Amino acid sequence: MAENVTIARPYAEAAFQLAKEGGALAAWADALGLMAAAASEPEVKQLLADPTRTSTDRGFLFLTAVPGEIADEHRSFARVLAQNGRLGVLPEIAELFVELKNEHESSAVAHISSAFPMDDATVSRLLADLEPRFGRRLEARVSLDPELIGGVKVAVGDEVIDASVRGKLAAMATALKN
């Protein structure tokens, strides 16, 4: 979907500039997340692809499908997307916006896969150990992956730290073959 990312980038950058100027990065991220969730629904996708509806109709109907409350400036942004036929790329816009926001705030998302459930204290300690290495504030997204056998696997951007038992066994197998 590289084409969608190319289409979404200028919209994400425009939304980021508006949010930064208004000091509302978190509010914009939340609103774009809600709109992206709505745009990902199969019924909404079908509505957006309906050639019998005008762009104004699509924008209005789309906004009624967005869960929760969003501010007028977010509604205006959605209407611009509707007029340009770009509501379908909202998931990419939201993702790119979060990347811009994280870069601006010197933060990143750490995707942590663990073989076993982790309590909040353990996650906090792990993040405290990782933040100096990455030189930024990290936000944890934890998921369970029993195939790791034990330990954790952490991905921040393109960098992956595999401290899982499965990863260590794979490294050992590779070393033994060489």
TrEMBL record:
The keyword Ubl conjugation does not apply. Its main location: membrane. GO terms for molecular function: proton-transporting ATP synthase activity, rotational mechanism. Keywords: ATP synthesis, Cell membrane, CF(1), Hydrogen ion transport, Ion transport, Membrane, Transport. GO terms for cellular component: plasma membrane; proton-transporting ATP synthase complex. It holds the Pfam family OSCP. It is found in: Cell membrane; Membrane. It comes from the Bacteria. It is a peripheral membrane protein. NCBIfam families: ATP_synt_delta (TIGR01145), PRK05758.2-2 (NF004402). Belongs to the ATPase delta chain family. This protein is part of the stalk that links CF(0) to CF(1). It either transmits conformational changes from CF(0) to CF(1) or is implicated in proton conduction. This is ATP synthase subunit delta.
